[in-house]
Amino acid sequence: MLWRRNTLNQRSIVARKAFAQTPGLGRKYAHNHKNYLKQAIKQDIGVNQAILQYLTERHCSSQWRDMLAALGEELAASMDVAGLRAVMWRVGVRFAQRFDTGACATLAELERAIAQIWLDVDWGWASIEDAGGALVIRHYCAPLRAALGDAADDWSPAFLEGAYQHWFHKLGSSETLRVSQSTPIDATGCLEFRFGR
Question: Disulfide engineering: 134 pairs with which of 58, 92, 175, 196, CB 3.0-4.6 Å?
């Protein structure tokens, strides 16, 4: 499957949608997105720990947070990390089967389709970049920590691996190409995957 490279403008569509869905943020972004992004990148996360905690807690409905955390603890007590990753991977596949990306002829179309699926279910968003021999998938603001706790960081991202693998497979990718996690999940729910051999 050949993908055309994204342009900077096409990649920024995903970020604009995410910013537009955050009250007040969309207006700032629209007025001067370059300066706003520079400020956001330079911001010290340590200083804004209270803000980060607030957003993290809102990332999972309070009616489900304790139940899902207890479920995660029970699963972790019953299985090893490899088994937990396998379960979460299969859950990710089942999740992705519920959402059709549509026919995507370019990488930009696939990125928009997947990002919109995640935005629609309030699971953050994603960007996909052609890095030569592989695709780099960046998932932003996944609510995995909010739902399952940071003790699940070693195995919960396999949910995303399974979802991405399913979508690439449905679009005709070879069985030899696999999605694999390439960075740990951070405090904001952001992480990277690699799709390749």
Answer: 196
Query: Mean pLDDT, the chain, as a whole number?
Result: 77
Q: Are 136 and 193 in contact (CB under 8 A)?
A: yes
CA distance linking residue 71 with residue 79, whole number of Å: 12
In angstroms, the CA 139 to CA 190 distance is 6
Q: φ and ψ at 58, to 5 degrees?
A: -80, -10
Q: What domains can be seen in the chain, in order of their start residue?
A: 8-196 (3.30.1380)
What's the average model confidence in pLDDT over 16-34?
43
Compute the radius of gyration of the chain from its Cα atoms.
17
43: left (phi over 0), alpha (psi -120 to 50) or beta: beta
Long-range contacts of 109-112 (CB under 8 A, 24+ apart): 110/3, 110/167, 110/171, 111/6, 111/10, 111/11, 111/14, 112/10, 112/13, 112/14
